[in-house]
Amino acid sequence: xxxxxxxxxxxxxxxxxxxxxxxxxxxxxxxxGLAVPAWIVMLAxxxxxxxxxxxxxxxxxxxxxGFLPAVITGFVLTAVPNWTDRPAIKGRLLLxxxxxxxxxxxxxxxxxxxxxxSAAVDMVYLLALALVLWREIVGGKSWAHAxxxxxISLYAVSNVLFHSAALNGAATDVPERxxxxxxxxxxxxxxxxxTPNFTRExxxxxxxxxxxxRFSQLDMAAIGFVAFASxxxxxxxxxxxxxxxxxxxxxxxxxxLARWYGWLTWxxxxxxxLHWGYAWLTLALLLLGCAAxxxxxxxxxxxxxxxxxxxxxxTLGIMTRASLxxxxxxxxxxxxxxxxxxxxxxxxxxxxxxxxVGLPTNALLSVAALSWSGAYLFFALVxxxxxxxxxxxx
Length: 394
Fold this sequence. Notes:
By secondary structure, the chain is mainly α. It has 2 domains: 10-172; 177-394, no CATH class. Helices cover 74% and strands 0% of the residues. The protein has helices at residues 21-45, 55-84, 91-109, 115-140, 146-167, 174-205, 217-235, 240-258, 269-292, 299-325, 335-353, 361-388. Helix 3 (91-109) runs antiparallel to helix 4, helix 6 runs antiparallel to helix 7 (217-235) and helix 10 (299-325) runs antiparallel to helix 11. The longest helix is centred in the middle third of the chain and has 32 residues, at 174-205. The protein is globular. The chain crosses the membrane at residues 24-48, 60-80, 92-110, 116-134, 146-166, 178-196, 217-236, 242-258, 270-297, 303-324, 336-357, 363-388. This is NnrS protein involved in response to NO.
């Protein structure tokens, strides 16, 4: 400081741009908290046009290719330094990635821009993310994590296919199911890594003799079954092969989950929520498999067991733990954090099972949306200051 004047801090040095989880977790939370209620309003007042045409198409795309990629980006960019022993992606490059993501959300929410331009702006983000991730993995020779880069690359391709179908007026939802299949595989891969690792850490600290099973051929089979069955379902959503494949994948992953001793972590919601999220994933696999066979819940409700249940719970679990740990705060869930987990769970339960018990559609969607999106707005309110300010240990 000179002459009592504080030196100006360059944009690249802002705390929010010091790690990938900071801007992307906050952006994802705010977007989820606003976009879902916005879709309910569109339905209520009859708004018929967005940057992607019908509100339903906008809602599907923005949850699959807007909200979830932001969470994935925050997680991956934060984990990359540990995977590759390379410096964290921060500053101007991080700001560029976030700007690309945010630009996609703006152009697709409004019908002011030519459809081709809107699609091009949105497609750039995931392609850029895949390119950056490949650069880091190749540069650090971290080939064990190449599957994550492959899955994100395929996610970028499915977004391109989604836009291509929309621009050509093709009546196909294959790109949508491709993204859902990739979501299932990513959750199986990432959730199957972080959940037992954090559980092992908790049980060691609690001086419990039980330990989650180490990664084995069963885990490889669990991931493989999900990848194969979900891909089959993406192409042939109704049929015996896809149905029984998803049911088998759900059963194997249920066995996998049981080997992690999740019930012993109930005293620490920050760990237990990851097991709860993975349980939602196994339920989603089973419900989708039954739906493909013409049994149980309709496919739309089964899909929401994946999106509102597994994705909702798992993402909040990862976002809260990473935000606390990487900002120098104790990794313990307070009452506000537990309330977030409760809200997202209630929203998922109402959305998935509400239609089957005959609840009024408009009321059901409104309550489920407010509960689910409210969890993310609450995250932004409570955790936003942590993400915008320097870490406590700096």
